[in-house]
Amino acid sequence: MAGFLSELVQYRRLLLMLVVLGIGGTHLSGFQMSVINYTSPYIQKFINETWLERYGSVLPQESLMLLWSLIVSVYCMGGMIGCLCSGYLTAAFGKKKSLLFNDGVLITAALLTASSRRAKAFEMILAGRFLEGIAAGIHLNAHVQYAGEISPKKLRGFINVTSTVFLALGKTVARILGLRELLGTEDMWNLLLSFSGLVALIQLIFLPFFPESPPYLLLQKEDKAGCLKAMKQLWGEGNYQTEFDDLMKEKAITKGTKIMNVLEVLREGSVHPQLCTMLLLLLSLQLCGLSAITFYTSEIFETANLHESIIPYVSLGVSISELISIIFCSSIIDRFGRRLLLCGGYLLMALILVLLETSLLLSDQFLWLRYCSVILIFLFIIAYGLGPAGAVVAVMNEIFTLSTRASAFVIGGIIIWLGLTFTGMVFPFAVMLLGPFCFLIFVAVLVISVVLIYLFLPETKGKSTSEITEKFKSCRFKRKHHQPVEMYAAEEKTFCTRL
Predict the structure, then answer these.
(1) What is the spatial distance between Cα 339 and Cα 462, in angstroms, rounded to a whole number?
(2) pLDDT digit string, tens, across residues 16-40
(3) 40 and 216 in contact (C-beta within 8 Å)?
(4) CA-CA distance, 103 to 125, in Å (whole number)?
(5) What pLDDT does residue 496 have?
(6) Sign of the dihedral defined by the CA atoms of residues 85, 89, 95, 99, in that order
(7) Roughly how many angstroms between the first and final C-alpha of the chain, as a whole number?
(8) What torsion, rounded to 10 degrees, do the Cα atoms 206, 211, 213, 217 define?
């Protein structure tokens, strides 16, 4: 641990850049997805009052819920559009300029939401949330790729996980600022919504002092001097020949290959194993049961006889637990590897869900089990943070070359945004039909995910992008059926059942 901390001191300028990247990157996504819950009653009241003042009649409840649902869902619509734009922006202009452009979009969105009360126009909230969604679609992809590309090999796992750390930090900040003692009041809700603009302004001011990523400068711009200069700026004085040689190998492999668009990546057969791996990881992450835990949290806290005034602070404790566990994950991922954290995390989460299912079913007979349910929620969040929350992002960043990474992240982003929309629409109905038995679905998903990850995912710890690409090339994504005559072939053939 002491060696790890000494390395962080050596790379202090890199850490400073990660902070600037994070606060204007995934931190804002976590904040925006969580903060809407704390402003919900105030926004609905504002819509009612505005409608009454304009038209002299009360807005019907059905229309109010429709408008509120639109304000919530328009964020995902914008996220999908931003995600589709991110591939072109990052390929054409680089991650740095894409994020700076994105900051301008966020500041515009913040001005709209902050001015909505004075202008008495709820439509400005709708427009602001849509722009925030577009910005989220861009900075989710740009931040994760940027962070992965500026990391030295020995700290690559740690730095890849920082994007998830800032996502959890955003959720925590939203819970803190959303408390009634701070900005979660009827007079301050519009300032709470527009907090993203202040953070975007900070990134807009400080990000220009940092360089573009070394791989982008060398492989896309063919600027060797600029690449070496960026390495020294970020990593300090030292010998980075190993990292530079790895980039040159990747350049040799992809020589003459421009950055591919989404359709070209989908048609490229050599990338299909990586795409299938990404699909497996993203689906397992979205169907791991986190949405079910979030849905049941308030109900479980209430049945445990927690006072209503205490529940927001207990929920804040859940967010802090997630944040601390992901930070710990970032410090151990380069020691234990990605496969172990994924498989171990999912198995532990499956076990906790089984215990939680049992606890919920028997809580009426044994009242003390209600308190066990609260503890199990905390344990589930900790297991999620220690394993898949950080490891999935790390693997996604490592299995693609620069020529395919931007478009692959667009595909992954579309899966994420579609998953968020689908889960939000379908999950409440699943709860109505199955009740707490819905946890069993997620247990099955987790167990199946562990088996598939063990069989098909190679360990990427300590390997360069070119080495990981060769690993995918040399192994078969799917077992093939062989003719009996091949057993007698003179040439020896070796087959692998893992990616």
Answers:
(1) 13
(2) 999 999 999 999 999 998 898 888 8
(3) no
(4) 18
(5) 42
(6) negative
(7) 31
(8) 150
